[in-house]
Design a protein that fits this description.
By secondary structure, this protein is α/β, with parallel strands linked by helices. The chain has helices spanning 37-45, 93-98, 107-113, 129-142, 159-175, 187-193; strands spanning 3-11, 14-22, 26-30, 52-57, 60-64, 69-70, 78-81, 147-151, 180-183, 196-199. The chain has one domain: P-loop containing nucleotide triphosphate hydrolases (Rossmann fold), CATH 3.40.50. Bound molecules: adenosine-5'-triphosphate. Keywords: ATP-binding, Nucleotide-binding.
Length: 200
């Protein structure tokens, strides 16, 4: 089992509840705007604490209300790519990529895979949307995560850039074998990337 999630949480007016258990590959979370998809990612990441339930990824229990287990985000070994790239504006691309990386050795190979090797000395403000997104994905991968969370990684990209990021995610799915939990609005993306689809 990759993701074994059963969470309930009141967020403002919204009562969010979701249960799913999925195997290896990409689990895609789909559903209308405001239904709570990003909140579920935040509960898996440890940024939002569920009122009840459990979160297990692989063999590890990250949260279990009944026994009081609640690992802080930094101990969950999560690579989280937010809807906005959230790069550090005062750090060059290279330093952004290495932020949180236990080891600089995989930098060259990861940058080559994401086709961002020529951008290492640039500042984030000079990047296009697609480039910034790929740097955010690279930073998540280089932190040596146990799993990836991707929140609408193709949103607000033009069709060419979208295709590039789609291919990157396919490559990560097929080569790194990291469990991936991803949110998308787009049925075609879900169809193409998903090993499992969870509807909210
Ligand atoms: N800080 C907050 N205070 C009150 N309500 C909130 C807060 N954060 C989120 N919500 C509400 O919780 C619900 C779930 O939000 P969430 O961002 O998880 O949805 P989503 O499915 O990811 O939406 P989208 O697809 O539009 O990004 C929404 O109804 C939202 O208005």
């Amino acid at each position: 089992m990759s993701f074994d999630v059963d969470v309930r949480c009141q967020v403002g007016e919204a009562a969010i509840a979701l249960r799913f258990a999925t195997g290896a590959g990409v689990t895609v979370l789909v559903g209308p705007s405001g239904v709570g998809k990003s909140s579920v990612l935040n509960m898996v990441a440890g940024l939002l604490t569920p009122d009840d339930g459990h979160v297990r990824v692989g063999e590890r229990t990250l949260f279990h209300a009944a026994t009081g287990v609640n690992l802080p985000p930094q101990r969950r070994h999560v690579g989280y790519v937010f809807q906005e790239p959230r790069l550090f504006p005062h750090k060059r691309v290279r330093a952004n990529l290495l932020y949180g990386a236990p080891d600089a050795a995989p930098l060259t190979a990861t940058a080559a895979m994401l086709d961002i090797g020529h951008l290492l000395e640039r500042w984030p403000a000079s990047l296009s949307g697609g480039e910034a997104r790929r740097v955010a994905i690279g930073r998540a991968l280089l932190s040596d995560p146990a799993f990836l969370l991707l929140d609408e990684p193709m949103s607000s990209l033009d069709p060419t850039r979208r295709e590039e990021v789609l291919r990157d995610i396919e490559r990560i799915r097929d080569e790194s074998r990291l469990p991936i939990l991803m949110v998308t609005h787009d049925a075609q993306e879900a169809e193409r990337l998903a090993t499992s689809i969870v509807r909210m």
